[in-house]
């Protein structure tokens, strides 16, 4: 580049910093020189930016072909009609400044730009950003986008979240925004960890949104029309009879014949043939991380008076904590009231109030959160339980600071929240129940 072009490139890089911080909204002026052939206007629908052409070509094979390839045309400007300016500017900032500046609002559009103009390192950074920000709220939308962008690793990560937190994902606002192909792939999913009534209600919510997208009044008939054959992917016969009678049967979406046949499916010895899938979903098999090598009981130990038993843990890959395994009474059958909680840096992520019964054996007893809690790698979380019961219980001993469970490594450390004696070496919360 000439000194003038180099000066402009530096000015442009500084401008990108300011623009993306929303400090200014106009590009720097073209330097006064008689040779501007390497300074190229990029025209967006609402405004334009002037950029140094040579560096743009070095950063993108597509731009290189446009400017210097065999079929290159001598254009006075390049129109960018299909990429939003903030996302395109994020790509320019990477090309010119070698800086990656992504945010949740524009990362998908930036990924589109990086894919279109073949900027692979930026595209990979976008995918990593999306994987890191994955949650039940956005997993369905990102599943749809990952298939569109042909990103199989991101698709796999999306499925992990959707399977483990299926009910949260299906009830998210993003679920109603997906396309029909993605809807069918989710309804067909064997490992969805959700009640079928939740699947049915989510499908109706999607159908209502689809009616609005097609400018149709969301009547019962139009919802059924929007769902099409996808409705038969809902495994209605696997609902409990109460769920079917109080939900699907009264929705109006099923025909009278379909409703009658499904009732017969539940009650008749000779069951009718149904178009609906009737095999129960497998769901996910919960795994258990057991942190003690043995358990014991002694007189006057382990007693509960509403004090907190707590332990901190971290994992090396994303998992979903579904509940805890707890010890029960060492003095015969007994009942306990339990409040279980998961926190990250003092912020509650999941809580549940549970009553459970112990038969006097040393077996652990599972207690569950309402929804599995997403746990990110390399961060310590606090697992706590407050028990209320009159009987002494078993307690763990010979605790381990690190436990390998399949492909997941758990690390444990003591928690300052623990006021009843539980720690790494011994105490309560012998098991973490999780999906991975």
TrEMBL record:
TM region positions: none
Keyword terms of this UniProt record: Cytoplasm, Neurogenesis, Ubl conjugation pathway
Gene Ontology CC, one term: cytosol
PROSITE patterns noted in UniProt: BTB (PS50097)
Primary location class: cytoplasm
InterPro entries hit by this protein: BACK, BTB/POZ_dom, PHR, PHR_sf, SKP1/BTB/POZ_sf
Domain of life from the UniProt record: Eukaryota
Entries under Pfam families matching the protein: BACK, BTB, PHR
Subunit structure: Interacts with cul3. Interacts (via BTB domain) with zbtb16/plzf.
Chain's role: Adapter protein for the cul3 E3 ubiquitin-protein ligase complex. Promotes the export of zbtb16/plzf from the nucleus to the cytoplasm and targets zbtb16/plzf for ubiquitination and degradation. Up-regulates neurog1 expression and antagonizes zbtb16/plzf, to promote neurogenesis.
Protein name listed in UniProt: BTB domain-containing protein
Native species: Oncorhynchus mykiss
């Amino acid at each position: 580049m000439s000194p003038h072009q180099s000066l402009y490139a530096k000015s442009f890089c500084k401008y990108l910093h300011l623009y993306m911080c929303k400090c200014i909204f106009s590009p720097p002026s073209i330097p006064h020189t008689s040779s501007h052939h390497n300074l190229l206007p990029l025209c967006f629908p609402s405004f334009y930016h002037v950029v140094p052409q040579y560096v743009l070509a070095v950063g993108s094979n597509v731009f290189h072909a446009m400017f210097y390839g065999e079929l290159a045309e001598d254009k006075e400007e390049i129109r960018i009609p299909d990429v939003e300016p903030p996302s395109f500017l994020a790509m320019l900032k990477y090309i010119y400044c070698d800086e990656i500046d992504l945010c949740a609002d524009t990362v998908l559009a930036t990924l589109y730009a990086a894919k279109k103009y073949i900027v692979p390192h930026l595209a990979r950074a976008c995918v990593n950003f999306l994987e890191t920000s994955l949650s039940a709220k956005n997993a369905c939308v990102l599943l749809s986008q990952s298939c569109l962008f042909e990103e199989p690793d991101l698709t796999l990560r999306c499925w992990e979240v959707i399977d483990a937190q299926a009910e949260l994902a299906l009830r998210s606002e993003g679920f109603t925004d997906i396309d029909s192909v993605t809807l069918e792939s989710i309804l067909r999913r064997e490992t969805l960890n959700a009640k079928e009534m939740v699947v049915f209600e989510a499908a109706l919510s999607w159908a209502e949104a689809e009616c609005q997208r097609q400018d149709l009044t969301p009547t019962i008939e139009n919802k059924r029309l929007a769902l099409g054959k996808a409705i038969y992917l809902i495994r209605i016969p696997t609902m409990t009879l109460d769920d079917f009678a109080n939900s699907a049967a009264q929705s109006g979406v099923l025909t009278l014949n379909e409703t009658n046949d499904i009732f017969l499916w539940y009650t008749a010895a000779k069951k009718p043939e149904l178009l609906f899938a009737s095999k129960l979903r497998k769901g996910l098999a919960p795994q258990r991380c057991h942190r003690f090598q043995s358990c014991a009981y002694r007189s006057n130990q382990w007693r509960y008076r509403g004090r907190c038993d707590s332990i901190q843990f971290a994992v090396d890959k994303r998992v979903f904590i579904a509940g805890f395994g707890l010890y029960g009474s060492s003095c015969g059958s007994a009942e306990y009231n339990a409040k279980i909680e998961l926190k990250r840096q003092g912020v509650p992520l999941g809580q549940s109030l549970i009553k459970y019964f112990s038969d006097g054996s040393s077996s652990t007893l599972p207690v569950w959160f309402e929804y599995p809690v997403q746990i990110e790698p390399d961060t310590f979380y606090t697992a706590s339980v407050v028990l209320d019961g009159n009987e002494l219980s078993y307690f763990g001993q010979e605790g381990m600071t690190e436990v390998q469970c399949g492909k997941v490594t758990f690390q444990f450390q003591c928690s300052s929240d623990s006021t009843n004696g539980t720690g790494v070496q011994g105490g309560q919360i012998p098991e973490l129940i999780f999906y991975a």
